Amino acid sequence: MAENATKCSAADGVTQTFDFRHGMPLMVRAVDFNALHAECQKLRKDAERYRWLRDLLAVEDVARLVDEHAQWSWCETDPAESAKTDTAVDKAMAASRAVGAA
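Below the sequence we write its predicted structure tokens.
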């Protein structure tokens, strides 16, 4: 988000003006802005998980995981299992930060 963008937390769908230095004012509904902001936060968290795993794994590990996944690629991904994986990675990330801070 631009440094000088006006933050908005309205949920009534009223159109707000967000003033950006690099262009003309942007008209956007507050609820749309809030939805996009929430999606951005989710994507940032996913990117943080990816970078943490990427830095942890060797290239050979990634290649092995890709090969194993290819064997099961016809299966539907269970959202509950994905959420469990996210939680497990989040816990491991927090534990590694705690060890690094100690």
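Helices lie at 30-56, 59-71, 79-101.
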